[in-house]
Amino acid sequence: MAKAIQYTELGGPEVLTLNEIPDPIAGPGQVTVRIEAAGVNPIDWKLREGIRPTPPFTGPRGTGTDAAGHITGVGEGVDGFRIGDPVVFTGAPGAYATDIAVPAEKVFARPARVTAGVGAALGIPVGTAYQAIRSLGIRGDDTLLIHGASGSVGQAAVQLAALAGARVIGTTSDARAERVADLGGEPIAYGDGLVDRVRSAAAGGVTAILDFAGTDEAIDASLELLEDRDRIATIVRGPDAAEFGIRAFGGGSPVPLTAQQETWRLEAIPVVLALLAAGRFSVELGERYALEQAGEAQRASREGAPGKLLIVP
């Protein structure tokens, strides 16, 4: 039988249990994947804690949505995949597992140069960053300020914006400044005097702002630095974005993503896989955890551990 991390009530990491589940079968339009690594995302523990709304429990609930592995079964009507193919998938609940059935449209071929760990790290961070940049229409003549530039989403956004030709300024801690610079951004320390430091670095002003930090400082600085509220967006402060007059892409926003934005989130995965295969994109990996250590992994994510944390079944 397969194994999966599940929970039957909201709560702390202790509600997560490792259970045996029936081996998944690829239904029409699906493939089954033997998981080699799964990415740990903040949404995983936010759902488990009830920070984000969830439907009532009707049985054990899986966790995690992003992973990489290889195809073990191909369902009716699926073309382009064969058993043994290395793949990446995103948006498939229950990814903290040994095996899973996934809709084929959420599965992407993984180039030989891309390890399972790197592939598992892409999903939500890369999809969110790519969609945010496309939604704001970032171009070569933009100066983009990114709050939280050293996190997984921030690092992806720094690289994608720089590849689009934009100048990128990113807030970060001193300890993480070198990483932001290596990715093509100009690191600026957050904290007192942030607005003045940004204005000093960008004499002509910033033309777009992405908030991946969600702090009051990030919001206040954004509102002071840029009058065009339509070019300020947050992925964290969704519930109160309308109060500030700025845009929200997820982050608990009552306004759902548009069909185009959802399409961009999926489109991001093959785009970045191609960049990785060409050596033009970098993913920072963090600690690895066994499947039975899922609670420990989510606790580390909640505490802001650096790099992309992975579950390795």
Automatic annotation (TrEMBL):
Q: Does the keyword Membrane apply?
A: no
User: Do the record's keywords include Transferase?
Assistant: no
Ranges for domain Enoyl reductase (ER) come to: 11-311
Q: Which UniProt keywords apply?
A: NADP
Record InterPro entries? ADH-like_C, ADH-like_N, ER, GroES-like_sf, NAD(P)-bd_dom_sf, Zinc-ADH_QOR/CCCR
Q: Which Gene3D superfamilies match?
A: Medium-chain alcohol dehydrogenases, catalytic domain (3.90.180.10), NAD(P)-binding Rossmann-like Domain (3.40.50.720)
The protein in question is named NADP-dependent oxidoreductase
